[in-house]
Amino acid sequence: MYSSLRVQTFRGIVWSSLDRFSAQGIQFILSFIIARRLEPSDYGLIAMLGIFMALAQTFIDSGFSNALIQKQERTEVDYSTVFYFNIGIGVILYGILYLLAPFIADFYNQPLLEDLIAWVGLNFVIYAFSTIQRTKLIIELDFKRQAFISIIAVVVSGIVAVWMAYNGYGVWTLVVQGLLNNVIILILLWFSAHWLPLWIFSKQSFKELFGFGSKLLGGSILHTIYINIYTLIIGKFFSSIELGCYNRSYTITQYPSSNITTILTRVTYPIECRMQDDNERLQEKYFLFIRLTAFCVFPMMIGLAAVADPLIRIVLTDKWLLCVPYLRIMCLAYMWDPIMRMTWDLLNVKSRSDYSLKSEIIKKVTAFIVLLITIPLGVEMMCVGLVCYTFADLIIVSQYTKKILPRVVFLEIVKELFPVLCLSLAMGGIVYFIQFLINVLWLQLLSGIIIGIFFYIGIACVMKFKEQRIIGELLMNLWH
Q: What is the pLDDT of residues 229-258, one digit of tens each?
């Protein structure tokens, strides 16, 4: 049973990875191609809408997806109730944003935002129609189907976006790319998920799911505001070029960090929910998950920080050089994202969404204090504030996890991850130093990547890191 669950987990991670990294990888490459033609200010305009888009998406789901995944005896009535609620919220939010468009444009002193909002806001409604289909596939651990859907959508919308970028459509390139991507995903999900809603909305089902999901909604709103308040403040008090560079750095950093977080939590959360009544086994799985996560994520993020300068110069050109310091600092902050999210998820696995909300409130109060202190010091110091918040986040949430799982405390988490962190930092230092010995940009980047990989894996083998052994065993057993 244990071996079967381990292989099932790994298979889910593999297909979830293909879903995220194949689609997002293509999108990532296409975004570099598009960014070479567009200006940082074009990305700055779209980033100004980030907080409104992210909040709307949070409200549309309202924690119901996690509530459905966590509930073991879910019914078709539950699915249908959430489906109609999501659509209603999506339409209402679009109407609100449309009415607020003139005020948002005045706030940023960017008249073009009024027209952009009218089109970008349509994503709310499109997303609302596909949330249940996504949730059902996650519950079934069917990431293979999601991978194919994502790839098709990204390729088609990306090709159209590249054509628009090279034909002078400017910021509208980004608008059309997002809309087309979501429309294609919506159509393919409806055709492939084999699910249709019942003509029913159950107040009892809504009340039960919202009782759990509302607390997650509260925490998600706070987190969403915090993450996106940076773009709002930079857009208001700094130039659109600085905002564009911050946004591009954030996007590059989030590609490995956010995607890996999504990949892992989409698989680990439903699996951990199955063992929610076995504390010892749940703790054992949690520490296994974070060790394997850190073993892959830490060197990736620290390595990215080390090669930031040649990467930006080669891929985005010198007009994006302001990204380099932002990117380096944010790599150190967001490398902890998967660990923070997996720790926080334990509260929801144990049905303590009240703890998750309380911890989120305390974390975000701390985060806003750090943000207010760093705003007068400039964008770079605001990024440093993100690093400070990262450790505060983990310390605070672990104060709640230890109430339900005694082993999951901050010092124990750090103890588990410390060897991997030290090896990753050593690798990053070597990669960074190599750049001073080589004058050719592409050689700096290529040699840094190759030497970093061989150094990290080589030392891990010599020191017999158990994470490497586990990953090797899983790869060998994957298709057996």
A: 787 788 778 877 788 788 888 888 877 777
